[in-house]
Amino acid sequence: MSLVIVGSVAFDTIETPDARRERIVGGSCTYSALAASFFTKPKIVAVVGEDFPPETAALMKKRGIDLKGLRIVPGGKTFFWEGRYGDDPNQRDTLRLDLNVFGDFQPTLPPSYRSPDILFLANIGPSLQEHVLSQVKRPRLVAMDTIRHYIETEPAALDRVLRKTDVYFANDEEARLMTNERNLIRAGRLLLERGPRLVVLKKGEHGALVFGKDSLFAITAHPCEGVVDPTGAGDSFAGAFLGFLDRAGDFRASSIRRAAVFGSVLASFTIEDFGIERLATLKPAEIENRFAFLKKVASI
Amino acid sequence: MSLVIVGSVAFDTIETPDARRERIVGGSCTYSALAASFFTKPKIVAVVGEDFPPETAALMKKRGIDLKGLRIVPGGKTFFWEGRYGDDPNQRDTLRLDLNVFGDFQPTLPPSYRSPDILFLANIGPSLQEHVLSQVKRPRLVAMDTIRHYIETEPAALDRVLRKTDVYFANDEEARLMTNERNLIRAGRLLLERGPRLVVLKKGEHGALVFGKDSLFAITAHPCEGVVDPTGAGDSFAGAFLGFLDRAGDFRASSIRRAAVFGSVLASFTIEDFGIERLATLKPAEIENRFAFLKKVASI
């Protein structure tokens, strides 16, 4: 099997109630590819400027990530985001956003990327997501993610992508915004009616719910006594979920369930440190231990 | 085994965004005893006025609840509470509170109540809870619940009761208020240090966490597409939890876990209708079915 991930690679400046980090590497593609790399060898499609640190590219390569689709724009500057978290790690304010090379990003897939088994349209505009979809032979599984900005500004394009999507990842705020429905069970079921076979609704510290036409899985979050930096939790969840499915080679209910637990596990590691620092040093045995722990915590 | 429950029996006037009900029967003792009655024959200690409906007493008797400790004050009026829920079913405002006969309540346990295996100090003031404790031979298990009002007004007495408590039930708001800690994992662990062997932290739609010295269980909430009336959810959880343990006859980890799932199940039924209406018609087979469903939803 193969997994292609299209998304953003960025510099983030992050402020939390306890600390601040300047221009650390982030982006939806970065987090999801690193998380997926513990299960499979993802191929990424993204754009960066010449300022992008070679150490990060080296880390990605070391983790088996295929960088043929990573375009480096000569003289360009990498996408930059600055955000601040309050006491509630689920709430954040964007303080600054410089699209830079991401503003003209027209993702073009290398020929070796055009028949993926799994395609993940991570957080980029829905029109770009459609553009990517038009370049591939229908994958066995299309997954997508989006953010408040696109839900508010490009709802029609988003709905078109949703109809071509098998797995839609949303956090609670996005699910409510998409459906205008406060109750998350109703929101999840309404989203299912708009195309996807599965809706993965992420609830931060409260875990996640995976809605299928005739199924529901509830996933417990790893008990975390202190979130250092919530950035990338959702991307890590999605990356691990899809990376696991790519390795499993099937989309049976039992695989979906395990995929979601691994999603929750990788997200729980990401938030233990700033940016990708925790993922950079993470060991497979730590992932397996945490999976076993969650199984013990949740089983009846 | 035997279970004694001390708490309030009340009239509630309840307003939700969709409806309003005047003077329906409620109270922590009522909900918890009815929920417990699906597992054991609880004995209740409470006080009501002459206005208390004989139909409710008859329903309780029919459900096997021992009413020897229910005092009816001649000429007295039953405790009355009026509250309003907003769009968020976890938020409510108290519009009116008439203590009536509850104001002079000095619970006296009938002789047949004085050696309970399990004692539940439901929502009454901590000084009254201490007064009850002083009347019983040390039970195998003491459980308690409280509310914001007593956390704010009687913290010292509350801490004394907590030190004599084995199982403390709190919702997320109460746990945060008790510990001044936003993170619920830390809050749960801090509460453990104040006496209880188990802290049951109820999170509404997000389920519950059961903290032990060396254990943690996460309980999924039944997926509910619409809460009719959240009143009594916590009391129903506690009643079913303790009723199940009373029937199980032991406090092993596996029993605690099942007790918490049954707690979640009974709470999920309570909120499907106003007041005790759903509990009044509930069938054991419905409880078993929902337990099996939650097991399927949560198992990895």
Largest interface, Cβ cutoff 8 Å:
A-B, 31 and 31 residues
Number of strand segments of chain A: 13
The helix fraction of chain A, in percent, is 25-40%
The coarse overall form of chain A would be globular
**Radius of gyration of chain A from the CA trace?**
18 Å
> Which segments of chain A are poorly predicted (pLDDT under 50) over 5 or more consecutive residues?
none
The SSE string of chain A, one letter per element, is EEEHEHEEEEHEHHEHHEEEHHHH
Strand proportion of chain A, as a percent range, falls in 15-25%
- Counting helices, strands and paired strands, the structural category of chain A is alpha/beta
Q: Can you walk me through this structure?
A:
Two copies of one chain form a homodimer. With 300 residues, chain A is an alpha/beta fold. Helix content of chain A is 37%, strand content 25%. Chain A has helices at residues 28-36, 54-62, 126-133, 148-153, 155-163, 172-179, 184-192, 233-248, 253-270, 277-281, 284-298, and strands spanning 3-6, 10-15, 20-26, 43-49, 66-73, 80-85, 92-98, 118-121, 141-145, 167-171, 198-202, 208-212, 215-219. Chain A has a nine-stranded mixed beta sheet with strand order 5-4-1-8-9-10-11-12-13, with helices on both faces. In chain A, helix 3 (126-133) packs parallel to helix 5 (155-163), helix 8 (233-248) runs antiparallel to helix 9 (253-270) and helix 9 packs across helix 11. The longest helix of chain A has 18 residues, at 253-270. Chain A is globular, with a radius of gyration of 18 Å. The two termini of chain A are 34 Å apart. Chains A and B meet through helix 7, strand 13, helix 9 and helix 11 of A and helix 7, strand 13, helix 9 and helix 11 of B.
